[in-house]
Amino acid sequence: MTETLVDHYDSYSRGLREYVASVAARLGVGMESCCVDTSRPAQVYVALDHRLDQFPGRDLALLWDEGTGWHAALDPGVGEDTVVVAKLHGAERPDPAMVARFVMSLNEKAG
Question: 13-22: per-residue pLDDT in tens?
């Protein structure tokens, strides 16, 4: 029974890491810009080289968790909370190209 659980976890972990690597590549960043926590509920953080026009001094990140999917958020400054600016609605793990289009559309939505 334990081997089955370990195999399932390893498969899930490997699949999530591969998915995140594909998303990161579409966004033009490497896995060194990503943090993947595969413990349940799994979470992902992707630091982006992209900023929003309305927040020029704030870094943008992409956050994912297995319960709510992808969110774009402003990285917090010292003593601040993360500010979610947009959510990608739909599938929990949408196609990486769709995630990239979501990020690139953020300035268009704000304008």
Answer: 999 999 999 9
Number of domains in the chain: 1
Torsion of CA 58, 66, 13, 39, to 10 degrees: 90
Expressed as residue numbers, the domain containing 24 is 2-110
Question: Three-state SS string across the chain, please?
Answer: CHHHHHHHHHHHHHHHHHHHHHHHHHHCCCHHHEEEECCCCCEEEEECCCCCCCCCCCCEEEEEECCCEEEEEECCCCCCCCEEEEECCCCCCCCHHHHHHHHHCHHHHHC
